[in-house]
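Please predict the structure of the following assembly.
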Amino acid sequence: MGNDWQPSCSLGALHLRARLLHDIRTFFQARAVLEVETPLLGHSTGTDPQLAFFRTDYHSSPHRQALFLQTSPEFAMKRLLAAGSGSIYQICKAFRNGEAGRFHNPEFTILEWYRVGFTLRALMDEVADLFAELFKGQGLQATQRLSYQAVFRQYTGLDPLQFCYGDYCAYALANGLPEAVELCGDDHLLWLDMLFSHKIQPFLGANALCMVYGYPACQPSLAKVSADNPLTVERVELFIDGIELGNGYYELTDADEQVLRFTKEIRQRQEQKLPPVIKDQRLLAALAAGLPECAGIAIGLDRLLMLLGSTATIADTLSFPVDRA
Amino acid sequence: MAVYSTNEFKAGLKVMLDNDPCAIIENEFVKPGKGQAFNRVKIRNLKTGRVIERTFKSGESLESADVVDVEMQYLYNDGEFRHFMVQDTFEQYQAEAKIVGDAALWLKDQDFCFVTLWNDAPLAVTPSNFVELEIIETDPGVRGDTSGGGGKPAKLTTGAVVRVPLFVQIGEVIKVDTRTGEYISRVKD
């Protein structure tokens, strides 16, 4: 037997995590944002074909039912918002099957919050305030705000909003990613994912919080389409030292548009022969009843701890990562 | 033939890539929160020795390569091929100079080494970490100098040239680290 009964993180990392949770709660308490809890086990889950979920069997004799470990608390929190909760936050576990590596553990901790009446810009200001608080004394440089288009152009010279196959291929061949030509083909979205994660993200936010906003409309997730540019959506991602920390939206509130996005993703799941998911009817009912205009964001706390504790792997921040759980 | 998926890639795994046998060195999972997951893999081509980086979509797979390292005894050089033998089975293999490469500098008759076989044919030869070889050529050293400072080149029976201390003489047998090509010590009979 080895020593895998022991935590993979140092005891100091346990203290760092406890202090982080305390600081976050203090921050939101001062701003009168309500802490909530929602179920980790739910009868449905997100339809995103890029997220693999854990499915469990719930036995309540004589019935059996599938319950899913949540890939994020988003749907349940939006139901609270529609019910009139006002601004809320939650610190909880989220589960994503098959994700393990230096920056991934299939079970991880999320901080997710929603601000009623906030625009994405106002939420980004609040994110900057929170990070200033959490990184106090760590000498983080001034926060950067860059549009996806600007950052993509800066690092690759390509326009992410207009797909030009020839230009994309020429860039890949000239910049050490020849496999992208075959791997991505004529799939614009796949090209964006590959070029962004290989050629841009590693350089974002050198010792600074970098917020990238205005994502291409082909990566909408649950964000509203931008009013001033229909080629982009009101979505922001956070990076420090090339590590992706969070993802926020000016939230989609239109139930009909939500149905369309669900339907599209469910069809993609079928095409890719992925496990089926049903549309979350309770979320749709909540949207139909009226989700207030709001902005929301989720931040991975384990990765935040990697930065706060200057550790090389996510396992250095977890008591027991999946291989010791 | 077995097939390995990206999540099974780990250091040392032998796979086929672009029709060449390769060894995985490193595998990093790259996934945007919303978006396609990739595996960025560092791979050594076992035929050329070159290391490349290649990105795969997570879940893609590669065929395994039938590559094994077998300990063999080096027998002799017939001018065109070098010959090796597996001790237990007496099975013999021959490898041309291109395959043997720099290992030739450290191969002495009857010594043991590792031969990497791909589909039962030699792909590469790795000498033992330490070998003992006789000096056939070196300048006479200064008698009495045992400090080892400075040193001088010495040619060994295999043709390898190694820096040795001044006091080491022609006809002496020395121990060499083949990974660095450095002199370790004299070998006393």
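Chain B is about 0% helix and 55% strand. The mean pLDDT of chain B is 91.
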